[in-house]
Design goal:
Elements lengths: L8 E2 L21 H4 L3 E2 L10 E3 H5 L4 H14 L2 E5 L5 H15 L3 H4 L11 E4 L2 E2 L7 E8 L16 H27 L3 H8 L4 E8 L11 E4 L5 E6 L6 E5 L2 E4 L10 E5 L1 H6 L9 E3 L7 E8 L6 E2 L20 E2 H13 L4 H5 L2
Parallel strand pairs: 2-12, 3-4
Antiparallel strand pairs: 1-6, 4-13, 5-7, 7-8, 8-15, 9-14, 10-13, 10-15, 11-12, 11-14, 16-17
Protein name: Fe2OG dioxygenase domain-containing protein
Family: Belongs to the iron/ascorbate-dependent oxidoreductase family.
Organism: Urochloa decumbens
C-alpha cells in the first residue's frame, strides 16, 4: 500500500467519537451518492468469481489448463479466489486471530501504534480522500524488505501479532513468486521476466476492520478504487461480506470463503496492468459495510517495476518475437505516486492517463 504526505490522500488518527453506534452519522462519513453509483448484481443472478487452484498450477499434468484459466481470470475479471495456495493452515489461523484480537483492544491500546504526522504507517482511519472518510479502522505497515520496517509501529499487543505477520508476510512473498511464474507462462514470456520485476520489491500489509453501521446505505467501507501496486492478496478473518468488484458497469459482490475456508482473494493492481501492457485488468472495487456485523480482513500488497520503471515488460513489446506496440508510457517508479495522486486530485482515471 503506497503512502502519501499530501492533502489529497492522507490518514487521520481515530478518536473516541469515531464510528458512532447510532443512526446519526457525522457528515465526514456521508457518501450516499457514491454508495448508489452503479447497479449491484442481485444475489439470484448467476455468476461466480473465478477460482484458481494453485496445486493444479504447479502440477505438470494440469498446469497448462489451469494456467489458461488463470490468464482468463486476470484478463476478464482482474480478480480470482486462490485455493490450495500452500500457506500453512496454522500461519493463516494466527494471522486471522491476531487481526481480530488487535481490533478488539480498547482504543488507547490501539493508538499506541497510531499513525504519526503525515506518515501512512500505523493505526488510524483508512486513507482519507478529498475530505471524506471511509468507515474503517486500519493498521498499515511495510513488511518487506525487512530493513524498511518501522518496528515502532508494529503492535506488540496481542503478543503474537508481530510473529504472525512476519510468518504470513514471508509465506505470501513465496506464494506470489510462484503465482507470477504461472502468469508469465500465460503471457508467453520466461518466468524470470515477470518474477524479476517482483523480486526484492516492497511489500506492505493492511489489516482492516469495517465496523457495523446503522446506516450502511450512507457510508462506504473502502472507496471505489483500483489498487496502485502490482498484486494484492486478501485474507478474510471472518465471514462477513462486503467486497464488490466492478465489471461491465455493474458491481459484483464477492462472497467470503465458506466457514473454515482459507482461500485468498487475489487481484491485479495498476502496476501489473501496465507490466502486461494492458493484457491483465486492474479492476475497480470497493467495500460496503454491514448494519449488524463487522468485517475484518488482512491484505498484502506487492510492488513491482522493471529497471526502476513502471512500464510494459520489454519481452512483450515489438522487437520481441510476436511482440506488440506499447500501450502505456513508462514512468519512473520514484515518480509513480506523484502521477497517481495527481490523477486522484483531478478525479481522472489513472491508467487512462498513462495510455499512449
Amino acid at each position: 500500500m503506497e503512502g502519501a504526505s499530501n492533502k489529497i490522500v492522507h490518514r487521520d488518527e481515530i478518536t473516541d467519537d469515531a464510528f458512532p453506534d447510532s443512526a446519526d452519522i457525522p457528515e465526514k462519513y456521508i457518501r450516499t451518492d457514491e454508495v448508489s453509483a452503479g447497479a449491484v448484481v442481485a444475489e439470484d443472478d448467476a455468476y461466480e468469481l473465478p477460482i484458481i487452484d494453485m496445486a493444479k498450477l504447479l502440477d505438470p499434468d494440469s498446469s497448462a489448463s489451469e494456467t489458461a484459466r488463470l490468464g482468463s481470470a486476470c484478463r476478464d475479471w482482474g480478480f480470482f479466489q486462490l485455493t490450495n495456495h500452500g500457506i500453512d493452515e496454522a500461519v493463516i489461523q494466527r494471522m486471522k486471530e491476531s487481526t481480530v484480537q488487535f481490533f478488539d483492544l480498547p482504543l488507547d491500546s490501539k493508538n499506541a501504534v497510531a499513525v504519526r504526522g503525515d506518515g501512512f504507517e500505523g493505526y488510524g482511519h483508512h486513507y482519507s480522500r478529498l475530505s471524506k472518510l471511509d468507515w474503517a479502522e486500519s493498521v498499515i505497515l511495510i513488511t518487506q524488505p525487512v530493513q524498511d520496517r518501522n518496528m515502532e509501529l508494529w503492535p506488540t499487543n496481542p503478543p503474537m501479532f508481530r510473529d504472525a505477520l512476519e510468518e504470513y508476510s514471508a509465506a505470501v512473498t513465496k506464494l506470489m513468486a510462484k503465482l507470477v511464474g504461472s502468469m508469465a507462462a500465460d503471457l508467453g514470456v520466461a518466468p524470470a521476466a515477470l518474477q524479476d520485476a517482483f523480486a526484492g520489491k516492497r511489500q506492505s500489509a493492511a489489516i482492516h476492520r469495517y465496523p457495523p453501521c446503522r446506516r450502511p446505505e450512507a457510508v462506504i467501507g473502502n472507496t471505489a478504487h483500483t489498487d496502485g501496486l502490482a498484486l494484492t492478496a486478501l485474507l478474510h478473518a471472518d465471514g462477513t461480506p462486503g467486497l464488490q468488484v466492478r465489471r461491465g458497469g455493474r458491481w459484483f459482490p464477492v462472497p467470503p470463503p465458506l466457514p473454515g475456508g482459507a482461500a485468498l482473494v487475489v487481484n491485479v493492481g495498476d502496476i501489473l496492468h501496465v507490466l502486461t501492457n494492458g493484457a491483465y485488468r486492474s479492476a475497480e472495487h470497493r467495500v460496503m459495510v454491514n448494519a449488524e456485523r463487522a468485517r475484518t480482513t488482512a491484505v498484502v500488497f506487492q510492488d513491482a517495476s522493471v529497471g526502476g520503471m513502471v512500464a510494459p515488460l520489454p519481452e512483450l513489446l515489438a522487437g520481441a518475437e510476436g511482440g506488440e506496440v506499447a500501450r502505456y508510457r513508462a514512468v519512473p517508479r520514484s515518480e509513480y505516486l506523484k502521477v497517481r495522486f495527481s490523477a486522484l486530485a483531478q478525479r481522472k482515471g489513472f491508467l487512462d492517463g498513462l495510455k499512449l
